[in-house]
Specification:
This protein has 83 residues and is mainly beta. The chain is 10% helix and 41% strand. Strands 1-2-3-5-4 form a 5-stranded mixed barrel. InterPro entries: CsoS4A, EutN_CcmL, EutN_CcmL_sf.
């Protein structure tokens, strides 16, 4: 699992059929930006827990879902300066 910060929503209207219409978020993982499926309804500025690989696909809804990063939780309190 990863701790990431949500930067902003990502809108993508033209998608492959299996991608459905799940919300996407741009998240900051260390110094790199990544796109994650938002399974919990987070907002910019939230610190979140992300899962990758097969756990990301299952968390997004099925083992065949085309995701390698899914947000599975919003962290209530996180101080990155003291972690």
């Amino acid at each position: 699992m990863l701790i990431c910060k949500v930067l902003k929503p990502l809108v993508s209207t033209n998608r492959i059929p299996g991608f459905e219409h799940k919300h996407l978020q741009v998240v900051l993982d260390g110094s790199s930006n990544k796109v994650a499926v938002d399974a919990v309804g987070c907002k910019p500025g939230d610190w979140v827990i992300c899962v990758g690989s097969s756990a990301a696909r299952e968390a997004a809804g099925s083992k065949s879902y085309p995701s390698d990063l899914t947000i599975v939780g919003i962290i209530d309190h996180w101080d990155p300066e003291n972690s």
